[in-house]
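Project standup — Tuesday

K.O.: blocked on the structure for the chain from last sprint. Re-posting the sequence here as requested.
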Amino acid sequence: MHALNRRTAITGLLAATLSVTLLGGTSQAAAVGLDDPAKKEIAMKLVSSAENSSLDWKAQYKYIEDIGDGRGYTAGIIGFCSGTGDMLDLVEYYTQVKPGNILAKYLPALRKVDGTDSHTGLGSAFERDWATAAKDSTFQQAQNHERDRVYFNPAVSQGKADGLRALGQFAYYDAIVMHGNGGDPTSFGSIRKRALAKAKTPAQGGDETTYLNAFLDARKWAMQQEEAHSDTSRVDTAQRVFLKAKNFDLNPPLKWKVYGDSFSINS
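H.V.: unblocked you, prediction finished:
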């Protein structure tokens, strides 16, 4: 989890061991981006398996708890945090598209606690109302909208600009989810700059494997700067495994284990 501008989706399983076994090589067909609907679904499941021990990422709309990381509440499909601003942005957007919703009354409190781990004005009532709101398709769509606006779309756009295929775009997405895209040394932008100091992107004429290894090295360094991320297995035994297999397109079937649990995506 990055400094207070970071948007976290981690739910407290960071100390466990992640091991992944990947089946299936790269396809000879033309590569598609991570924003292809089927690839995006794979990305959502991969992230959810690590962060929620489940492939059912849509079940996380209702998720909310304080995981004790100093960022207040962590909630929803991407770990919107009351202390980092993205939960406030989400509820503001939800209220824009559905005025008078059940969470709108918490906007003053969310503005006050932004930047802190305080629950003042929130608490158990907010937790219950969040779970209620999660049943509303408009709130679910709002979560999807903010996930894409803040995390997914910027990651995919930068990945495509750098000449990366779906795996590289996923590496960017996973990094921006965990570290945010602010200006601190462990943010996504800073991670990418560290990688660029070591290797060229494919768009610059570099080798895709070499560049992605440099990016994952930089990502690992960023994770090690904070105790909560000292377990770097999601890089070491997940994304590195995909890269070693040269599955640049994240083609199924995929089989892997996360924190001792087995998962698979067959198609």
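K.O.: great, moving the ticket to review. Residues 71 and 83 are 4 Å apart (CA to CA). The chain has one domain: 18-265.
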